[in-house]
Design goal:
The N terminus and C terminus are likely disordered. The chain has 262 residues and is mainly β. Helices cover 5% and strands 58% of the residues. Strands 1, 2, 3, 4, 5, 6, 7, 8, 9, 10, 11, 12 and 13 form a 13-stranded antiparallel sheet that branches.
Length: 262
């Protein structure tokens, strides 16, 4: 199984060789979980690359997360972008808060509340809410995010924008397991364009962790997303690396919410 997962990882990066530039940022290409341990501290980087050579562009979301209790987790992101024509520059600062709503042996749900502050002169302010749902079926974990966003300020869109982020992980091995991810932005509610004109992305992924010591681990993932409609026909490779520190009880495998405890 590990040999197959390593081969998939190599294929993910090779598939990005002819990717084209895109306008997403790394914070958009992530699936949030509805539950977590407490207290918990995380720091990490979510990055993606599109294009190759002089046409390559990078986006980074540097994160710091803290869960002071099992009822609240707060997260901060510094979103950066760069390409051959522009050095690394700050795009926005984002603040997110996750609140678990219900937890059971096979089903978890929560609510994320977020807002961002763009760099000076960089665009309108964005805020929103996002229901989070996660279910476990044997070794399969399904997670669905449904963000709803609005904007204010110069250049803001009118109405409420909708989207989705979904993930399926098969926990064959907590250190390296295969997954599928999908993201989509249908547009402003009531003014959705036709399906083929909406931005939809999907592709294979790998998830895993590297235990460091009791209560400490590195969590990582890699995914290659393919454009599924005429709105975007390129490819995007996303890499994520997070350092986690928490207090909890030892478990032998990842829980449905990706909450390993050593």
């Amino acid at each position: 199984m590990r040999a197959l997962a390593v081969a998939m990882l190599v294929a993910l990066w090779a598939a990005a060789a002819d990717a084209v530039p895109v306008d997403f940022n790394a914070a958009d290409l992530y699936v949030y979980i509805p539950s977590f341990s407490s207290p918990e501290l995380e720091a990490g980087d979510r990055s993606f690359v599109s294009g190759s050579g002089r046409d390559a562009s990078w986006s980074h979301a540097l994160e710091a997360e803290w869960a002071p209790s099992r009822y609240w987790k707060t997260e901060f992101y510094d979103v950066l972008q760069q390409d051959a024509a522009r050095p690394l520059a700050q795009e926005s600062v984002e603040w997110e808060n996750i609140f678990p709503v219900a937890k059971g042996p096979h089903f978890n749900s929560g609510l994320l509340v977020r807002g961002d502050l763009p760099r000076q002169g960089g665009g309108p302010r964005t805020g929103g809410v996002m229901p989070i749902i996660s279910s476990k079926f044997g070794i399969e974990t399904l997670t669905l995010n449904l963000p709803f966003e609005g904007q204010s300020g110069a250049g803001a869109f009118q109405g409420t924008r909708s989207g989705y982020a979904a993930r399926e992980v098969t926990w064959l091995d907590p250190y390296l397991s295969p997954a599928l991810e999908a993201f989509g932005w249908p547009g402003v509610i009531g003014r959705w364009s036709s399906l083929n004109e909406q931005t939809q992305l999907g592709g294979p992924a790998l998830y895993g962790l590297v235990p460091l010591s009791r209560g400490r681990a590195l969590r990582y993932s890699a995914v290659c997303l393919f454009g599924l409609t005429n709105a975007f026909r390129g490819r995007v490779v996303v890499g994520r690396l997070e350092y986690r520190y928490w207090n909890g009880h030892k478990a032998h495998a990842l829980e449905p919410a990706e909450d390993p405890r050593f």
